[in-house]
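pipeline/complex-builder :: batch 7 item 3
reading input block
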Amino acid sequence: MEVGCEEIPARYIDSTLLQLHENLTKKLQEHSLGHEAINSYATPRRLVLATPALDERQADRTELLTGPPQSAAFDAANNPTLAARGFAAKHGLAVDALKCIQTERGIYLGFEKRITGKSALEVLSQELPQVLRSLNFPKSMRWESTQFLFVRPIRWILCRLGDQVVPFSLAGVSTGSVTYGHRILSGNIEIEVTSFESYREQLRNHKVRFDSKDRLATIQSALTAEATKVGARLIPDPRLLDLVVNLNEYPSIVCGSFSSDFLRLPREVLVTVMREHQKYFSLVDAEENLLPRFLAVVDSDGAHTEQIRAGHQRVLKARLADARFFWDVDHKVKLEDRIQQLDRVVFQQKLGTMLEKTQRLVSLTGFLGKTLRAKNLDETKQAARLCKADLITDMVKEFTDLQGVMGGLYAKAEGLPVAVSDAIYEHYRPSTLEDTSPQTLVGAILSVADKLDSVVGAFGIGQVPTGSKDPLALRRQTLGLIKVLLDKRISLSLEKIFFRSFALFRRKATRTREETWQDVATFVKDRLRFIFREQGFRYDEINSVVEICFDNPYDCLERLRAIAAIRSGADFEAVAQGFKRIKNILSEPGLEISTESLPIDPALFESDEERSLAAAVQAIQPKVRRAVATRTYARAFELMASLRPAIDLFFDKVLVMAEDPKVRANRLNLLRSLLQTFLNIADVSEIVPASKEA
Amino acid sequence: MIVRFQDLFLELLRFWADRGCVIQMPYDVEKGAGTMNPETFLRVLGPQPYAVAYVEPSRRPADGRYGENPNRVQKHHQLQVLLKPSPLDIQLVYLQSLERIGIRLVEHDVRFEEDNWESPTLGAWGVGWQVLLDGLEITQFTYFQQAGGLDLEPCAVEITYGLERIAMFLNNADSCFDLAWSPTISYREIRMRDEVEFSRYNFEEADSALHFKWFGDFEREAARLIKLGLILPAYDYCLKCSHVFNVLDARGAVSVSERARLIQRVRTLACQIAAGYVKSSAPPAQVPV
């Protein structure tokens, strides 16, 4: 099947193909139609699904149909009753053709109905429209009288099974055997298709490369070749590459240049102008200096490169001239003098302006700086005061992606301290988990403050992200915040900085501090789990620490590392199992309360095993406390593991639920004490032993 | 080969006239885009088919550069085509129109890149592309989905050619002011003074207090006319509100909270006008005999 569309936005194509593939596979499975691999392909103008082989039809099958019970089916003379005759007639059978069948409910009159399997053609013509209907797009449209919703207008549907057209129609378009060549390079020529082979071959002849993997390979090698030709190296840009692959049906590369006068602009600006406005790749020389050249991926057969190059160069020149104008004009006003104008820039409708945000950031960075005993407090505050001023510059208004970066560059040009300009430059970082965190502590503090303020403010007015709705990118910001803390080994209490940040919203928040913190905490835990998973920790390891110490992500990470390191040892998992057992015992209803305040009484011990466990626990408690205080978690877990013999023996020889209530309570208290010794480090009962994992 | 500015739009209008479009005049109230011409904003509403093309001088006060920027002007010219319902082969017809003005498409890199249009002041949005010719945006191509807050059925397609851009492309010109408007007069001679004076006015001299007063007056008048069922006159005053707002914005006289409120006020008028237009142009209900 090939669905011919007007240009589908490049960013939707991959996810659409995935959905198509999934939906069709599911449908074929539901209908028990066997098939070979389903391949999916796409260009901006076509979505293609193909499989080399599909069962011709569903297998025939039988279904047991039952009518009246035997007792009601025949009268005393053993003649069929009205009920039996009625059932037979309903199915067009004689009563003789029915059998008495033993079922779970008793003996019933019935028969085995033979059901002929549907042909693949029938199944496909019924299900393919459903497969297309059920696609989700970030934004859909209507264009014709049936009001069908799709990403862009459908103009043809080619759909064949063997030598037959699979008949259906959708959005006013009926299926057929026809496709079209490249709209411009082959004059949109109409092509009759008889097989997948003929489809492949004719499209190739008519300048359509329908497989994006094929286009990607072509583009990649051509980019490298063109770069080499001019003695340059490509600045890799995987995101741009993914995009341009789906912006053409017949890619080729044009290498253009621009006047080296523009090289006086910062590299960040040049690369951004080329990438964001024109989707061009940038080139550097062997010393990593930016070259006044670009590579454009164009939809062309390479026959008229000169003309196309000239066109692209002219457009870029105008764009760069704009950027140079912005750069020169922006320098005329100092960042300091722009701050007041931030009262014209909205941060969030209910949370006020960027000027208000700036004031909060100054206060919040001051607090963070003191908490972390940062040396350059004045520079931290100066960076906070200036960090949003670049939003007023023409350059950032034009290229929003350069926010922060431009502020940093302008600050540097003004001769402000390097600590200040660097911090401003990097304060939006990290923008993804792959991105790097700010290099300096001042930058890290500003980055954390900026993100914290957004998250706390939004949650404070009930703007909690749901599903795909996350206009302030709070998920990304929270991930970024946590990543900075982990990367920069910053140990602090989130609750503490949350309270400080919340206080700065004063009358703006519409919810209480406690309500807000509950939601923020849950949100943070989810992001933290995600990051730890990405770092390769296992679910059970993560479960054992996140609930206990999410408040201090870096501390949480250290515990996690210690657990991951020690679990391969002989004793740890066994002890973890013991803890699980203890936890189960203590969670029996009623137990916690009756044993709550009772101390351990050595006089009540009856066996050596419990005496030695009590002694072992008592002996390590101060050591564990010291290990926690110095955050040497590996040591704490070693101490835990060292208890294995004592715990094993205890469970082997001692009956916890003794007859005598006093003895029982005493034993429970011993276990409680053991559990509590470690429970504020990690809940190791969450650890699933390797042998038990599937 | 020199392609004169006037020949460009004459040729395109001829092309669309040959395909059944009514050729209309620009609308005589200041506006930011051809879409705001009632020939588009009101005609997309309701079920009646319509096809129209016209040139629209479009005013964007904030884009003025005193005639010093070769690409940015406070008044540029859009050639607007509106087709309701949208024809099946509309992309191909559009590409033919480019061939008609002398662009040999096989020699160029032509792409339709996602660009969805939205006008908060008109309560209107659509889905479509910007058309790029060797990387230059020459056309906005939009399937209208809503106008004045109303769902559109049938959907119309709107094609907006940026005439200055296309003329510069055809003439390999680096500045729009270098274009020949007619065989004897340049774009510079016709338009430069306009750019200089209006840039000065919009950025430096416009009387903010007076404009704020006008905004209120025009708004009241539009609201009054809507109540009287005088939809077309009401729309004129709605357009005036929009332009006055644009001048205030360029003048830097609008604060953040005010900005959102002013846009909302124009949008309210636009939505009421759209509803009034649909109501008053609905065919009278059939009376059973």
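note: The radius of gyration of chain A is 35 Å.
queue -> next item
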